[in-house]
Structure formats: C-alpha cells, structure tokens
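debug: dumping io for the single-chain case to check the tokenizer round-trip. Nothing else runs in this session.
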Amino acid sequence: YYRTEHLTLKMLAEQLELPEYRTRALINKQLGYRNFNDYINQLRIAEASKRLVSDPDTPVLNIALDVGYRTLSSFNRAFREIKQSTPTEFRRNNTVS
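debug: decoded output
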C-alpha cells in the first residue's frame, strides 16, 4: 500500500480502519518514526534498495516510479537522505559484477 502515489495519513488510516490520530500515534510512538512521511519514505527506499541490487538492468527512474515516487528528483532526495548516497552509487557499490 505504501507504493500508492499521493498516499496520505488519512488514506492509510481508512485502509487500516483506524482513526487518523491512532494511526499517527502508531507510526510515531510505537514504530519510532518522526512522522508519516518519514515512515513511508523508509519503506519505499528499503524496497528500492533491494530492487537496485536485484534488478541491475532496470532504470533507476522505473524503480522510483514503481515504489511510489512521482519524480526522479524527489526519489533521489529521499534516497540520499536515508542511504547517504545516490541510487546510482548505491547500485554500483552493492552489485556484484
């Protein structure tokens, strides 16, 4: 579900059949994330990291779009913040040739 573009806390709460405030508390207090966007970005970047290594011929843009980002620039920014490298550098450093 985290791959959904334009995903909001309200949408996730409805899917979980929980009030928004309970969903927010679950993400922040129970799971330890700063906020909803941090939680979603962590999930998306974790999947993207796996795909960058396991699918070396798939363009970075395709992976970014598949995991829920609308633009390559927003994906690159989130990826760098979480992994401290660009997706291309990450792929190069983690792919066995």
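debug: round-trip ok. The CA atoms of residues 80 and 89 lie 10 Å apart.
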